[in-house]
Amino acid sequence: MTATSLAHPVLADLAGRLPALRLLTEPSDLEHYGRDWTRRWMPAPLAVALPASVEEVQAIVCWANEHRIYVVPSGGRTGLSGGAVAANGELVLSLERMNRVLGFDAVDRTLTVQAGISLQAVHDAARAHGLIYPVDFAARGSCSIGGNIATNAGGIRVIRYGNTREWIAGLTVVAGNGERLDLNRGLIKNSSGYDLRQLMIGSEGTLGVVVEATLKLTEPPPASQVMLLALPDMAALMQVFALFRVKLNLQAFEFFTDVALKHVLAHGAQRAIDGEHSYYVVTEFDADEDAALAVFEHGAEQGWISDGVIAQSEAQAAALWRLREGITESLAPHRPYKNDISLRISALPVFLQEIQALLGREYPQAEVVWFGHIGDGNLHINVLKPEGLSDADFIAQCEHVTKLLADTLQRHGGSISAEHGIGLVKKAYLGSTRSEAEIALMRGVKQVFDPKGLLNPGKVF
Question: Do 28 and 105 fall into the same domain?
Answer without folding.
Answer: no
